[in-house]
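Summary for the steering committee. The consortium agreed at its last meeting that each partner would contribute one worked example illustrating the joint modelling workflow. Our contribution is presented below. We chose a case with several input lines so that the handling of multiple components could be demonstrated. No manual editing was applied between input and output; the record is shown as generated.
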Amino acid sequence: MKSGAQLYRKEIEEYRMKLFFIGPTILVLIVMNVFPLIWSLGLSFTNYSSLVSRKISFVGFANYAKILSDPFIWKYFQITARLVVVAVGVEFLLGFGLALLLKERFRGWGLVTTLMLIPMMLSPVVVGLFWTFIMDANFGLLNFFLSFFGLRRVLWLTDPKIALYSIALVDIWMWTPFVMLISLTGLLAIPQSLYEAADIDMASFWFKFRRITLPLVSPLLILAVLFRVIDAFKMFDLVFIMTGGGPGDVTETISMSLYRLAFNKFKTGESCAMAYIILILIIALSNLLVRWIRRTRV
Amino acid sequence: MVWKMVKGILIVLVLIFFLLPIYWIVATSFKQWPDIFAIPPKFVFRGTFVHYLTLFNIRPEEAAKFGQVGKSLFPPRFLNSVVIAGISTVLSVALGTFSAYAFSRFRVRGENDLLFFILSTRMLPPIVVGIPFFVVYRALGLIDTHIGLILLYMTFNLSFSVWLMKGFMDEIPREFEEAALIDGYTRFEAFFKVILPQALSGIAATAVFCLIAAWNEFFFALILTSEKARTAPPSIAAIQGTSGINWGQIAAGVTVFLLPVVVFTFFVRKYLARGLTFGVIKR
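What follows is the complete predicted structure of the assembly.
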């Protein structure tokens, strides 16, 4: 039997351990994340500019009103949405298709799947850089392939009709492997016995796909798509390096225009307001993801 | 049989699609100047190390031929990347491991809310937190300092590290430290002498993911550094010559920069699904 004093000591020790082990993490996150966010919330109601030193004055909701009534901002939201839908849509179809293709193991399976996953581990800015080289209108590899098949060359990054889809293509190159990996994990976890039972009942291929495969992988598919939508919505590096928002403003995503507002025009107060508007959208999206994680975990 | 062949061809095509761009940039880094822009592109060529030699200032006199003015800034900035990614990784993995252990073993008040608060900090768009960071860092004099970027990368990897490590800690049976406690170890001793060695492979995987994320980071480095603490990604992007973009040197810089990432990807290949979903997927 343990004495009361011993039990008490054990409790103190546990309490100290919790404090020492979790405390620093929470402290870091509050100092480094919550505090700057509160600071910028304050700035979003002022006319502060980090370039010009003038007296800061309180402007109420003027910044928010200005952003929300700016027709260009709505256009940039639309551009971002189009990019997200095209990129994530193709990534979903292609990634899931690849996973079905790679479901059965063969010789060299491990090497092939690992090699395919390399693109998503690379730095987006570096990826954007070498795709810019590949997409060069004159000496680029991509136009060489087109001409090889007798097609006309394409101005991948300077044609206003195409530039956005060129960026989507690079995002697809980077992130299809991610969707493939998550789908593959789901597919490999389906018990083989389900298919065997269906075979005994002479079920068709289509029936097995619809009634066994899809329902069992769909939680993971949705997880992958949610991760991708949130990430693609924030996309900055690729756009910054490949087109800088151009030609004109056809690839001006919302992150890009916020960057310009804050660091080219130095309208810091206004940009804080815009950041908060984006933040609310992201929080809504992340909430969906978090709910889904809670469901998938159990 | 026919299906098997079709499948084989499809897989080869897919591999080409994903690997050719990487091969192409690596090949470009070894090409002589005119070959880089050759039409049709050259798949067979006489190699040269000149772009690497100018990148690392080993043969600076060659650099002028490609329109480069002065010395290449790549070596010190590459070193900055190593230092900043390395230190920030050690810090976030250490903090993350401690917190994950406590979350895994003890009843913590509001545990779920705390964990999701931690996760939500990672969901914030970099550009949105970037603006307040810029303002606060300027007020504190942390712009263009190593410590500023280390603190930032530590924070942005912290949530990831807590979540991933929590999954690994949950998998270590409680019997391990219960036995240690009966043997007279204190709680802290049990953690450091019994649990930590068990968690080593998980810690290594987490560290690799943090390292790659910090290594690859571009946006914060772009807005918060300029000279002294600037890392490799914004520097590679800024390599320019007076006569057009110096693609040979960019390709060399990209190759040097990518190599460690590819090597590390092979180290953690078993944990990729787990790492990229914050440990939600356990396989």
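The CA atoms of residues 87 and 171 of chain A lie 6 Å apart. The radius of gyration of chain A is 25 Å.
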